[in-house]
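Co-fold these.
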Amino acid sequence: MEKLPGKTVERLSEYRRILLAYLDAVDDYIFSHDLAALLHITAVQVRRDLMLIGYTSVLKKGYDVKKLVRTIGVIIDSEEGQNVAIVGLGNFGRAITGYFKGKRSKLNIVAAFDNDPKKVSRTFYDVTCYAMEEMEQVVREKSISIVIITVPPVVARVVALKSIDCGIKGILNFTTMSLNMPPNVYLEEYDMVTSLEKVAYFIKET
Amino acid sequence: MEKLPGKTVERLSEYRRILLAYLDAVDDYIFSHDLAALLHITAVQVRRDLMLIGYTSVLKKGYDVKKLVRTIGVIIDSEEGQNVAIVGLGNFGRAITGYFKGKRSKLNIVAAFDNDPKKVSRTFYDVTCYAMEEMEQVVREKSISIVIITVPPVVARVVALKSIDCGIKGILNFTTMSLNMPPNVYLEEYDMVTSLEKVAYFIKET
DNA sequence: TAGATTGTTAATCGATTAACAATC
DNA sequence: TAGATTGTTAATCGATTAACAATC
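Predicted complex below.
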């Protein structure tokens, strides 16, 4: 199948989570407008997204919830799951490690990297911290394909380059430093300062 | 001035940060293509954004860096600054508190709220934690207009409603629970699980 | 001048929404 | 049947990019 639009992928992820959360509460089937209401979007958008992944409803009963969850899993997840590493175990890196632990099963945080000797070889939320020099070896041994970068901005670029050297395929960059990647590496960036400033702008009195 | 497109506001925030960071390194003036290169976008986009805010370059020397930083400040910041509160002092809430402390001066985290008695009345990174019952009073006394929500998803909705009751104008929601707001409250949501799943999808082998 | 840079309009691209025939 | 729901095309909206005249 052709790659889906990024926005559709984001919503598929949200559909799945909300359906999993409501799995016990709702019936076995759900109508497009009910799913839409849970996410505060329109029913047309739900139907169009599901059309794009070739999923069809059953009769006029709506969408089979369990089947839909499985179908979205087939699209987003990999058979074997993807292994993830955190690079940078500051406050933010540790919070993310704790946050992801015990969440979705197909995305596993299996290692952390930091240069602080006080952190290396300790474990945080069951995740072992390694020194940066060990990265290549650990990435290979643990089949890590994604890194989450939470280092200070000044070293973000060298960390990203190092990750690419180690064979990483996807990067989630939480630093304020904008990165650019070769075309074979997928990059997703988020900056909370920008988000907060956006809020500040839009609530400003004219 | 009419409200700018959200994407333009995001980039203005990024322009400012990158210019501040490079303030000493670069010359007093910067060309659109140089600024674009720093953010890995196109020069046309930079020029169009600056056109929208009515900022013009000087001669053929490029944009006056200091003036541009000030101009963006006038657009994004409020005269008096905006006061921000964190609601939910878990790992994530504490990390964000520490992260924002000592950053941009016009956005100040002036309070935190949590229901855990062990946290209430303690301070984290110079920010005092209050009980949820005190919210209305503290928001009023400290003129808080924005809250960052980092509570467990199950209570996100009641926290958001309470915030609105207290007169909050903008919400930055980091929980996985999608919120919907009355039209007079500005809402920005971010979900890192979705971001990570998006990365996972796009690096999947065909 | 020739070359570099700009501000702005028009064209393109992508994503959302409206419209509607088909189904139960 | 009548009403509700769906899948899908066409129209709309918004954001990015291309084109280009004007400036130094």
